[in-house]
Write a structure and sequence with these properties.
Layout: H1 6-14, E1 18-22, E2 28-31, H2 33-39, H3 51-55, H4 58-72, E3 81-87, E4 93-104, E5 110-119, H5 121-150, H6 161-175, H7 179-192
Antiparallel strand pairs: 1-2, 1-5, 3-4, 4-5
Length: about 190
Amino acid sequence: MATYNTEISQFLDYLGVIIVVIDPDQKVSYINKKGCEILGYEKEDILGKNWFDNFLPEKIREDLKTVFGKLIVQEIELAEYFDNVVLGKDGQEKIIGWHNLVLKNDAGTIVGILSWGEDITQRRRDDEKRETHVQELEDRVTELKSVKMNIPICSLEKKDLAEAMRKHYRLISIEGKCSECLHVLKMVSQIKK
């Protein structure tokens, strides 16, 4: 496990983002205070542990281990930014927006991955709620447009819409036409001329 300068470590603890270094063996060699808070563990319960086996949901572990392995042997490039889920001690999943940097020694060998990120879980939930509300509003507008197309012309300006519609359909069933609708249409056609 790498030893980090105490002053740098103290500085990193004051930042409001999670900072973690994962060594080539998939073990956590550094994590800051915010990272411990997000995960819900003490630092000593995180350091030296396999990042993937202990702090990621099971459903994504193997895929991310495979990607990490390819990164370490430089088969693929590291994405500078991606969103990923971490698993807290309480079992809660949190979405982190990660920024990443490959750490290399003087010989150019990768010695770890430095990642720092922000907990964006609430922002994602808010975005999802907003999208749901927008969709509901769009659905309602469509519904209103559809209903408006089914409202007889003579009923549009009436205070008691239900009563006006009953009267309209009664006239249609008895006389085969609605004299009020015909009157409105006649007025509109005269205005257009």
